[in-house]
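Tip: read the tokens left to right.
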């Protein structure tokens, strides 16, 4: 019954959650090909997706450092970057900042930061920058106005068109009363959807409830106005949005017909249990908000895991921690990778995974490398990224500033 339930929900979510059309959603079942297993892997390869939650960034940053280090070790290439092995990155809140710094083009045409450099840069500046915001965490303080100078030095005049790969970063637009997703694919098509990367990061991390103000911003041509608050409120876990974007974007991802054609790693945060002072005490507004946001993140995780069915152990990897965040950020980051993650199981709550977070990342790095090598031998492209229709707006002076920021030994 467990297997049958997974197969049925896989078909339902493939059909309705991710929205692509299937003339025969219920393929015939045979002893060799059980219900739902007829969705075979395409010879064209797999699209590799990175998704980062709107957490405090500690676990996600450490996970990316581990993933990049594992890729370098397994390939023997000391210059390999996370962006080299993924086809799309989605990030919300602090996760959007991580995605942006790892996938924005630098002066040499490579990502402006490696995973280790990003974590080191943010770790050094978070105390000073956090003084201007009422939030704690490695990444959150950087988005306050006091930290705008650092973001300007890191991103310069770079816009969404200057990212190396497709990028999806959500916010909630108060001007329209609806979620809004900043997308490189849209930016390439029209100036009205192209925004400065530094403003995109500010928009996805804005949190009025934490004392920050909504971010007022306009597209590069001034035609689109956004009044943004944090992406975590609108889309705390952007994994489903990223998968939907890929499966419905046949121009850039012609090989992605089904979830079986995807390799997805979703990076969550380290959760602390909700505990009021007394068992009978009512939950505070902050606790209720935390429960609501956490539940939304878990629902997406469950839906995506069910959609992958039997392939969820290989094609879909979720990194999630559970415990106190009272430790120093560096200690928490190291400890979280040695712990077994928490998996959400439909109708059954949560359970500990069989592997540690670090082991999951090492295994996923091997899958990424395998797909990377397969593409070298294949004549059928799995991904065809849209080129920018106009030259990059980033000036040479901007790239000079970016270079001096990211190459400084002391940051």
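Filled-in amino acids:
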């Amino acid at each position: 019954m467990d297997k049958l339930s997974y197969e049925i929900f896989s078909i339902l979510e493939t059909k309705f959650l991710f929205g692509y059309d299937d003339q025969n959603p219920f393929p015939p079942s045979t002893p060799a090909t059980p219900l739902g297993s007829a969705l075979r892997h395409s010879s064209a390869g797999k699209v590799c997706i990175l998704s980062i939650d709107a957490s405090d960034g500690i676990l996600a940053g450490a996970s990316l450092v581990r993933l990049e280090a594992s890729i370098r070790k397994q390939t023997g290439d000391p210059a390999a970057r996370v962006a080299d092995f993924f086809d799309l990155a989605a990030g919300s809140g602090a996760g959007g900042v991580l995605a942006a710094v790892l996938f924005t083009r630098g002066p040499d045409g490579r990502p402006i930061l490696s995973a280790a450099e990003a974590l080191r840069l943010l770790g050094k500046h978070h105390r000073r920058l956090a003084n201007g915001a009422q939030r704690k965490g490695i990444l959150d303080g950087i988005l306050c106005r006091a930290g705008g100078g650092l973001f300007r030095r890191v991103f310069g005049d770079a816009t969404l068109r200057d990212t190396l790969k497709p990028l999806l970063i959500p916010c909630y637009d108060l001007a329209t009363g609806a979620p809004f997703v900043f997308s490189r694919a849209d930016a390439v098509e029209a100036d009205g959807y192209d925004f400065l990367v530094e403003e995109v990061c500010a928009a996805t991390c804005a949190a009025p409830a934490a004392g920050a103000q909504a971010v007022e911003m306009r597209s590069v041509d001034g035609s689109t106005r956004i009044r943004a608050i944090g992406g975590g409120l609108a889309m705390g876990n952007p994994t489903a949005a990223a998968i939907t974007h890929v499966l419905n974007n046949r121009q850039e991802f012609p090989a992605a017909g089904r979830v079986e054609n995807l390799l997805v790693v979703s990076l969550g945060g380290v959760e602390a249990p909700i505990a009021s002072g007394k068992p009978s005490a009512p939950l505070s507004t902050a606790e209720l908000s935390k429960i609501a946001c956490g539940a939304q993140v878990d629902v997406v995780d469950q839906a995506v895991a069910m959609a992958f069915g039997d392939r969820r152990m290989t094609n879909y990897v979720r990194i999630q921690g559970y415990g106190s965040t009272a430790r120093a950020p560096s200690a928490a980051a190291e400890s979280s990778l040695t712990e077994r993650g928490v998996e959400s199981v439909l109708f059954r709550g949560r359970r500990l995974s069989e592997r540690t977070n670090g082991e999951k990342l090492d295994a996923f790095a091997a899958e990424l490398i395998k797909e990377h090598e397969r593409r070298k031998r294949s004549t059928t492209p799995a991904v065809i990224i849209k080129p920018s229709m106009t030259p990059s707006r980033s000036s040479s002076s901007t790239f000079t500033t970016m270079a001096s920021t990211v190459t400084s030994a002391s940051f």
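The mean pLDDT is 77. Residues 285-308 form the longest helix (24 residues).
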